[in-house]
Amino acid sequence: MKQKERIETILGLLDQHYGTDIICYLDHENAWQLLIATILSAQCTDARVNVVTKDLFRKYTGVEAFAKADLKELEQDIRSTGFYHNKAKNIIACCQDLVNKFDGQVPESIEDLTSLAGVGRKTANVIRGNIYNEPSIVVDTHVKRISYRLGLTKEEDPVKVEFDLMKALPKDHWILYNLQIIALGREICKAPTAKCEECFLTEYCPYYKKNAGKQAPAKKKSGAGK
């Protein structure tokens, strides 16, 4: 099977298994809330972030409030998300830039977004895909791991993985692929050990084909009883 046909088949199976609805796992009502939630999600589960932001967005009701926040107080507000010193500093600096450079609005372009404190390509693409409906590929730990296992990239650097996937996948599936692969990674294709016996992609997966035949050698029979 040619690579293009294999990819089309994989995407079809992902659509069939997970559906084609665009779902964001981070709770938000607008662009700035999603931006802050995504900054908080680094090295933290979406579920934990949603617990924290439920109260956080009641306390800080807009970009201006975060821009004026007391650093130590904000650190305590987000402490349970981990790496709270850097996250609090970045959130305040990011919101100050939003107020001073972008009239309090979250920008759309990848260049403007990545100019903000604490915002890399991953966070920027979350905003572009979910807020502005701009096709984008978010390379998190699941997307990086599973794309490598599926043979869609040989790269380790997330930016290089992103560009490989942009070449390999049709644009209309970029956002969907992110969501579907995250679901697959949480349920089946885990690190370090994938549950290949439960996976619906094994027929098209180089990782499975490489590892499926690896079994412990059979024990030698004892000579007794001959």
UniProtKB/TrEMBL annotation:
Q: Name one GO biological process term.
A: base-excision repair, AP site formation
- What is the main EC category here? lyase
Which residues of the sequence carry a binding annotation for [4Fe-4S] cluster? C189, C196, C199, C205
Q: Where is the HhH-GPD domain?
A: 40-187
TM ranges are none
The UniProt keywords, alphabetically, are: 4Fe-4S, DNA damage, DNA repair, DNA-binding, Endonuclease, Glycosidase, Hydrolase, Iron, Iron-sulfur, Lyase, Metal-binding, Nuclease
Q: Does the keyword Iron-sulfur apply?
A: yes
Which SUPFAM superfamilies does the UniProt entry name for this protein?
A: DNA-glycosylase (SSF48150)
Cite the Pfam families for this sequence: HHH, HhH-GPD
Q: Which reaction does it catalyse?
A: 2'-deoxyribonucleotide-(2'-deoxyribose 5'-phosphate)-2'-deoxyribonucleotide-DNA = a 3'-end 2'-deoxyribonucleotide-(2,3-dehydro-2,3-deoxyribose 5'-phosphate)-DNA + a 5'-end 5'-phospho-2'-deoxyribonucleoside-DNA + H(+)
- Which cofactor does the UniProt annotation name? [4Fe-4S] cluster
Q: Which GO terms describe its molecular function?
A: 4 iron, 4 sulfur cluster binding; class I DNA-(apurinic or apyrimidinic site) endonuclease activity; DNA binding; DNA N-glycosylase activity; metal ion binding
Q: Which CDD domains match?
A: ENDO3c
Q: Its family?
A: Belongs to the Nth/MutY family.
What function does the entry list? DNA repair enzyme that has both DNA N-glycosylase activity and AP-lyase activity. The DNA N-glycosylase activity releases various damaged pyrimidines from DNA by cleaving the N-glycosidic bond, leaving an AP (apurinic/apyrimidinic) site. The AP-lyase activity cleaves the phosphodiester bond 3' to the AP site by a beta-elimination, leaving a 3'-terminal unsaturated sugar and a product with a terminal 5'-phosphate.
What protein am I looking at? Endonuclease III
**Native species:** Eisenbergiella tayi
